[in-house]
Design brief:
Blueprint lengths: L31 E4 L10 E12 L8 E6 L9 E11 L12 E14 L9 E8 L15 E5 L5 E9 L5 E12 L7 E9 L15 E5 L3 E2 L4 E10 L3 E8 L2 E10 L6 E2 L15 E2 L1 E4 L1 E2 L3 E2 L4 E9 L18 E8 L4
Parallel strand pairs: 7-10
Antiparallel strand pairs: 1-2, 2-9, 3-8, 4-7, 4-9, 5-6, 5-8, 10-22, 11-21, 12-21, 13-19, 13-20, 13-22, 14-15, 14-21, 15-18, 16-17
Length: 344
Amino acid sequence: MFAILALGGDLAPGVHGVLDIPVISTRDATNVTTLTPQFFPRHKSKRVQIRYGPYTTGSMNVNNGMDDFTEDNAQMPCSDCLITWMQAGLEYPNGTYANSNTSIWLHHVVLYNNARLDPICGWESQPQAFFASGNERSAIDICDNGTDRVGYYLGPSDSVFILSELMNESQDNQTTVVTITYEYIPSTPIEFEKVTPLWLDIGNCNGSDVPALNNASFVYSSQPWQSDLEGRIAFAGGHLHDGGINIEMRRNNKTVCNSIAAYGQSPGYVEGEGMNMNGMMMNSSIVEHISSMSSCDKGRINLGDEISVRAYYNMTAHSPMVDSDGTLAPVMGISIVYIAGIDP
């Protein structure tokens, strides 16, 4: 699940305690690969990939192949800087691609800024989550391909906590590394705006897993949050589980962003007959998994607006995940939205 952190470093009820999760520090500079920046050359933009791990995920026969890993005070690409673009990945220690077609999933990775308050749930739930990805691994393009002068500000005293959950479909242990690619400006140019991330969740502030329903189609909505901030939407994206169709971000009961799931766009997201997911048998011999979620970069939030998300599932159109006991696995519906024009 996407975990909700509680004040004091513990996880909220219903989530594994933090002491049960391996805490790993990766400070070695060899974990950093310098790449060619794509945006803002005048501001000396930089792009790097940082590898976190390695992590060994147990057999699918142990805890259904699910293991959580954390990085406390995790290595970041910069400080006193603006992060303009991020994307997660998963690979083997030798650098080869890892995905469902090699029986290992990046179930999720979330980055929390311990120095900042979550705008919606507050300190009693979690620090500020400023990046998240599921196995779809869609890019968080805050700067809209370099056309929008915005970024997430990482302060000189900020510390970042990373929570990764990996899922192994194999009978054997698998060792992988989580990668995150960052593009950033190593300064804070005066003409750039800082963004504030909002975590919108159909589970509200009580954890992200909700029960899948036996209906062929069903919809989950979050409780409305009354906005105490205002600004424009620089980027909004969504996350669903297999069977998901789309997730809407809604403002005053009107859709302002519709993030749509795409399936099986590359071989890494296609599984053949005889394969399963986390001990979860699928409903057909060839299964396509969510491979991307569309995003939005238009709209505005005003003071007093009621903000919510609505997730749509159709278990007939796309095969859902099923637990080893034959029941439907829980589902999620999350949107992370970056609001510009607010002093974070």
